[in-house]
Amino acid sequence: MKALDDIFVLDLSRILAGPWATQILGDLGADVVKVERPGRGDDTRGWGPPFLTDPETGAPGDASYYLCANRNKRSIALDISTPEGQETIRALAAKADVLVENYKVGGLKKYGLDYESLSKVNPGLVYCSITGFGQEGPLAGKAGYDFMIQAMGGMMSINGECDGLPGAGPQKVGIAMADLSTGLYATIAILAALHQRQRSGKGQYIDMALLDTQVAMLSNHATSYFISGKVPTRLGNGHATIVPYQSFPTEDGYLVIAVGNDGQFARLAAELGHPEWGSDARYSTNAARVGHRQELIPMIEAETRKRKSAELQAALESCVVPCGQINTVDQVFEEPQVKLRGLRQTVAHPHAGELSIGASPLRLSDSPITYDRPPPLVGQHTEEVLAEKLGR
């Protein structure tokens, strides 16, 4: 058994937030049918290089961007602008448990594929819309992309080097933070709606917005602003309310040191040759360290610069001070812990043979994640799905 192997998901989403949510549902066992435009399919199939290439012909295939968010799905090719395509979607939606879409506000209403229309043929349908700004408000009709949402939602204002230092200025996060977090929140909302349907017998409409999610992800920074009235600023790799909690220069690179309590700080101070810091009133508590950040951090840096990263990491680990090296992506997948946890998986791809994919982090003891389907080709399963679901 798989956790969601009785759930049929009709996936009308493209790009990243929607496909990320439906991939999670597929990983959990749901039957996810991805609806794509004939020929081109999902836009991200062309968002490269790099592209997956056919080992025999060398011809370029799908971009890695598409491949990261579409495993454990089947693909059907339909033109929903035609009456025939619309009728097929309605027929599939009548049998679906979940529908996920990320068209512009009102984009599917003109085809009769909006929630109001489809809930009449399937009152149990959980219908999730993902947009940049939600279904109402002055920006509702505006397209939303991750980069602009990180800017508008405050993420870039708190991410980047401090003013006055080299490289200072607002920075986006290197991954599509707004898209991915919206996909996660959408998955949570879908699962909650399915659970409620078990009691009510009714589906419901879910309105997910990238901006809403990005603002929610401000988390402690938002609450800090509400309480203090002070606008959070960029601190580089530092932390607004924990010190020391940042990267430190070493003789041969950098090491992240993440002190979470006063005991850990006392042990860090001792290992760096300054046990007196642990009892100094200016540094003995976290609140005091935050207040004296400007004098404490340079003193710590002066000591870490004398040690090689690996030697310092081993020493701090031996005295239970949290720390870690800054890995490049290739180094991540060579980490023994990453290998042991199976965070790189392979699936058989119809064109490329064996395809490496990043694994799901979900670990369920009785219904483990499996990787049964590689990211599909455009329309690869059209005949199969229509025969199975609609008898055509």
UniProtKB/TrEMBL annotation:
Q: Does the keyword Transferase apply?
A: yes
Q: Is the keyword Transferase in the record?
A: yes
Region entry Disordered, spans? 39-58
A molecular function (GO) held by this record is: transferase activity
Mind listing the UniProt keywords for this protein, alphabetically?
A: Transferase
Its protein name is CoA transferase
Q: From what organism does this protein derive?
A: Paracoccus methylovorus
